[in-house]
């Protein structure tokens, strides 16, 4: 059995950022503007998770656009016109999600401004390797921001990344771990925490395979940190990781 980590990616060589000129204010972040910028009756705001009233408004707006608010989002950027919410997008660590734009303002270029502010906000937070999980109809919009499609469900959702070659390189790197055998199995596991049930699953799968790859989700959004989960798996299976 070989244990590997999933999503252990730190490639920052291919970053695509688009900077918008907002009126006469250049090279000024949202934070430096007290989280608000005005542009032709349009207001950009940052909304944190603790701002309940604004968060309720975002929740309702997302619902009107057939989306649910995601609890993992740390901060939202909203666009309002005359105090009416017309667009929003959220940032959950290095993932852009909860992107919604009112039909009445489509075609005005606001969508691209929203996408740009989300990318720049992530960059300000020293987050350069980004993913986007959004509606299929927003795919072209984020292509303009330098994102590339990883996978999509036509007319439903799309997953994108701001690198044109990382995934290809990562897949090539996995070839170095190829093992001989007719039946090669794999399990993607969070193991939060690792239990006897997890161990039984692994043992049964290993019996049916010539080689079994176990991918442990590295993202720390679980109750138990990645290092703890990985250590529990190693101790239970008495194997070393690669």
From TrEMBL:
* Coiled coil spans: none
Superkingdom of this protein's organism: Bacteria
Q: Which SUPFAM superfamilies match?
A: Acyl-CoA N-acyltransferases (Nat), Nucleotidylyl transferase
User: What GO MF annotations does this protein's record show?
Assistant: [citrate (pro-3S)-lyase] ligase activity; acyltransferase activity, transferring groups other than amino-acyl groups; ATP binding; lyase activity
Arranged from A to Z, the UniProt key words for this protein are: ATP-binding, Ligase, Nucleotide-binding
Instruction: Please name the InterPro entries in this protein's record.
Output: Acyl_CoA_acyltransferase, Citrate_lyase_ligase, Citrate_lyase_ligase_C, Cyt_trans-like, GNAT_dom, Rossmann-like_a/b/a_fold
Q: Which Pfam families match?
A: Citrate_ly_lig
Q: Does the keyword Metal-binding apply?
A: no
Q: Which residues form the N-acetyltransferase domain?
A: 23-165
Alphabetized NCBIfam families for the sequence:
cit_ly_ligase, cyt_tran_rel
**Name of the protein this chain belongs to:** [citrate (Pro-3S)-lyase] ligase
Q: Which organism is it from?
A: Providencia rustigianii DSM 4541
Name the lineage.
Answer: Bacteria, Pseudomonadati, Pseudomonadota, Gammaproteobacteria, Enterobacterales
